[in-house]
Amino acid sequence: MDTPLIELVGVKKSFGPVDVLKGIDFKAYAGKVTALVGDNGAGKSTLIKGLSGVQPFDEGTVRFDGHDVHIVNPKQASNLGIEVVYQDLALCENLDIVQNMFLGREEVAMGTLDEAAMEFAATKALQSLSVRTVKSVRQKVSSLSGGQRQTVAIGRTVLRNAKLVILDEPTAALGVAQTEQVLNLVRRLADNGIGVIIISHNLADVFQVADFISVLYLGGMVASLATADTNYNDVVGYITGTKSLEGAAS
Amino acid sequence: MSNTSLATGHEGTLRDQATAYFQRIRSGEMGALPAVSALILLAILFSALSPFFLTKLNFANLFVQSAELAVLACALVFVLLLGEIDLAAGVTAGVGMALFVVLNQKMGIDPLLSVIAALAFGSLTGWIIGFFVAKIRVPSFVVTLGFFLGFQGLQLIMLGDGGIYRVDIPAIQAIMNSNMPEWAGWGMLAIMVVGSFLIALWDRSRRTRTGLATRPISMLFIRLAFMAVLGGIAVAILNENRSVSIKAIAGVPIVIPIVLVIVFIGTFVLDRTLFGRYLYAVGGNPEAGRRAGIDVAKIRIAAFMICSTLAVVSGLLHASRIGSVESTAGRTIVLNGVAAAVVGGVSLFGGRGRMMNAIVGALVISIIDNGLGLIGLPAGINFLVTGGVLVGAATIDALSRKRSGGSILRT
Ligand SMILES: Nc1ncnc2c1ncn2[C@@H]1O[C@H](COP(=O)(O)OP(=O)(O)O)[C@@H](O)[C@H]1O
Ligand SMILES: [Mg+2]
């Protein structure tokens, strides 16, 4: 297979005496969706925070696009093209979709906000994801449903030319129809060549959308599998610790 | 990919635009609509109750009397947008004016320099308040309540107990007491209409060049026609002699273009600059702003600085109107200022409100004051009515917030 977009080798992280990540190996590829699963406390969020620079790793190698990198703050991660969509989304309800998508990176022409340019780019970004569910890109976020808000947050990463998008539990708060919408969006993100890492507790979602599944168990990576080569019961086994280390070490 | 097209809200005919507007209102984005309705109802009510209400003299007085409140409300918009409050805005204006008379009259410093010093004092006060709120995270309600008390003491110390100083500098008296020549009133209106037209054309050309839809141009003409007709009626009335004595009084009061310029600059800053965008963002969701890389503390401090500085401008208008500076200035007006902003449609929860809301709200509060005075009801009624209107407006604010917030659960 080609070079992974992101590759972690022997990554460790501890908080005082507690080893939370105990030498993790992990890969994710451009154009593919990699699901990161594991029980509560397995270390998923810690892994993500290391990748996004919020809480840098203590030890280990991080390779982005084949180059060794040290990500020590969010700005650096963002410059590399790593964007995280956190569960709380961090949107401003009083602003519209375009304004939220451009927040902090506004287009300015002659000292004033270039609304036309921003509206155009935001529309294009949403169109690249085949978004049809929003009435108008000038709608206020307060009037959007949970799925539509997720759409805005994901659209924002496209606008920022993300190469790797990390989604933390994007469907946790959504109903069936909206979950479907968001999963389609995740798929399209990958189809556009972006590497996607998705954290989820919902294995049905994972099997629907992911190309690869990596399972964390108590701070160790116990399995990294192609979705096609595994099944629901095996993954549950890895997550709960009743099944261990088959082909994961390779 | 061309099969998916996303609307921008600019598409469609006049009818589509109107439908969309009513939809926004139903979903709780009412803006200044309740206040404008209240304004019209109050005007009708008071015209029926008092023969003096609709006189030319009262019409002009209404604008002049509301000017200082309008400017104070505009000042407060900047902190209200953050979901903060400045209870000290009135007494900041009071101390600013006290500083002005001390410098100008006791120390003989040039009036212009003294005014600049007063404005600088406003900025400094805003910076200190902002520092406590943004950096130390003391609630603005408490910080500014402290300043509200402390500054009353400062006023007494600077001017003496019961101290009143006459301000007889012609340039300052002129602000609230002089009128423009007839032609200047028409010129002002022409600048407003043509200016709005040019700005709208500029925006449209930007959109067209980018390949975006534009609203029907007839909408622009309707808006401009409204502006021209209403403005034309106002200027025509103000240009007539409204004196009840032999000496003629006519012309648009000078303070009107002053307030309009403040509104224009404020609106420009809020709608078209990065600072304005960040002010709304921080008011809506500070954490989202922080994650987007906005220096939240800097925005907060700047907002308090603008508020306090503009408050001193409002104090200057007050001093000009009554011709003096007294040691108790600014104690009560701040609550009317908050009331004006909220009545006009500025949200107390932050993130929602515009300059025009403050102006309309100030007119509502002033018209209540003016109308009840003309009817001859006791002053106590005035407080009761204004208080009731404030609670009513805050209720509308809370309900519309609930309604638009409720859509989170909508699928
Ligand atoms: N800042 C921290 N300080 C101490 N312990 C932490 C900290 N963050 C996470 N942990 C611990 O690390 C473990 C893994 O947490 P986390 O990465 O949040 O797991 P997950 O996201 O998979 O549920 C948990 O036992 C948690 O208590
Ligand atoms: Mg977690």
From TrEMBL, chain A:
CDD domains hit by this protein: ABC_Carb_Monos_I
ABC transporter domain: residues covered: 6-243
Gene Ontology molecular function terms on file: ATP binding; ATP hydrolysis activity
SUPFAM superfamilies: P-loop containing nucleoside triphosphate hydrolases
Record-linked PROSITE patterns: ABC_TRANSPORTER_2
Keyword Ribosomal protein belongs to the record: no
Keyword ATP-binding among UniProt keywords: yes
Record's keyword terms, sorted: ATP-binding, Nucleotide-binding
InterPro entries from the UniProt entry: AAA+_ATPase, ABC_carbohydrate_import_ATPase, ABC_transporter-like_ATP-bd, P-loop_NTPase
Pfam assignment, any one: ABC_tran
Protein name listed in UniProt: D-xylose transport system ATP-binding protein
Organism: Alpinimonas psychrophila
TrEMBL record, chain B:
Keyword hit for Membrane: yes
Protein's cellular compartments: Cell membrane
Residue stretches spanning the membrane: 32-53, 111-134, 141-160, 183-201, 221-238, 244-270, 299-317, 329-349, 381-400
Membrane topology: Multi-pass membrane protein
Keywords: Cell inner membrane, Cell membrane, Membrane, Sugar transport, Transmembrane, Transmembrane helix, Transport
Role, per record: Part of the binding-protein-dependent transport system for D-xylose. Probably responsible for the translocation of the substrate across the membrane.
Protein name: Xylose transport system permease protein XylH
